[in-house]
Amino acid sequence: MSKAVVFFADGTEECEALLVVDLLRRAKVEVIVASAMGRRELVSSHKIHLTADALAEEVDYSDVDMVVLPGGIPGTPNLAANKTVTETCAAFARAGRKVAAICAAPSILASLGLLEGRNATAHAGFQDQLAGAVVHDEEVVVDGNITTSYGLGGAIPFALELVRQLAGQAEAERIRNAIAYRH
After folding, report:
1. Mean per-residue pLDDT for 100-125?
2. Which of 103, 109, 135, 155 is labelled catalytic?
């Protein structure tokens, strides 16, 4: 079974984060919701109270297949301020392990130098912060081990792509049909 960590922070865009968690869990991927705030209780960008499974600092990343950064403001800067989050993303990317980010969060990857010369996307308001990347205005962009998406409007295709990467094309199609996603 594959394993993913989805980082949450105060101000995380809840739909981007929870869609990824939901669809990965439907695919039987083990998902850990990891808080970047030093506490498990969080408040999303639209004031929804959420509880993480663990603190980012408590997670054993040795058997994790993918880490995911949802967007949102101030969620993205809150994720970027957590050393465990940024060091884990950098270590995964440099080791060829899977890293995914949506909306504003690809800007974190760019700030770490991880998008240099790579194809990527982000929310239109953050595309200018993808320093070194070849920016595409598409729902989902995959470049090797890094997957990015432009925002909430691309959250379902983004999550389905992550399912495809971790559980296979057939499972991604099964879930797409189960949730009646017809695009």
Report:
1. 98
2. 103
